[in-house]
Design brief:
With 148 residues, the protein is an alpha+beta fold. It has helices at 38-51, 69-76, 96-108, 116-131, 134-143; strands spanning 11-18, 25-32, 56-60, 82-86. Strands 1-2 form a two-stranded antiparallel sheet. A two-stranded parallel sheet has the order 3-4. Helix 1 packs parallel to helix 2 and helix 3 packs across helix 4.
């Protein structure tokens, strides 16, 4: 079997959203070809603010990217509509977004993309399918140990 051992990557940042008024779920995803830093996290938060017009509750895992100074400064400025709640240090069973990734991995499990561009296309297709399905997004919420 041939292995290329290339270091190409696709880093992603995502959010599963719940509209308290309409009762609809949404999935927001951004892809990057490099490691995600605090700059990309802040950019993603700005993106969420532009699209979500009510207060935004962030349920975050213990990832160090969420504790970057740039991210904390952005969140703590008075003009923001974010309320941050942190999960315990390692509790993926509480995070509904983890189940989005479980479903996407299921879709991609037998794929053999030839290059990073094909993987990017496959990943966008899988996440797009999940994001358009209220049924799949609701399953992600139900699978988590959070009470809604």
């Amino acid at each position: 079997m041939y292995h290329s051992y290339r270091r190409d990557r696709i880093s992603t940042i995502s959010a599963l959203t719940v509209s308290p008024v309409r009762g609809r779920l949404g999935l927001y995803v951004r892809f990057h070809r490099t490691n995600i830093t605090g700059v990309e996290v802040v950019d993603f938060l700005r993106h969420l603010q532009r699209h979500l017009h009510r207060p935004i509750v962030l349920l975050w895992d213990g990832g160090s990217i969420h504790r970057r100074r740039l991210v904390n400064e952005y969140l703590s400025s008075g003009r923001r509509r974010f309320y941050v709640y942190r999960f315990p240090a390692y509790a993926p069973e509480l995070n509904p977004d983890e189940y989005v990734w479980t479903q996407s991995k299921r879709c991609l499990s037998n794929g053999t993309p030839h290059d990073i561009d094909e993987l990017n296309k496959d990943l966008r297709t899988a996440l797009g399918r999940i994001g358009r399905s209220q049924k799949l997004l609701k399953a992600c919420l139900r699978m988590s140990d959070l009470s809604f």
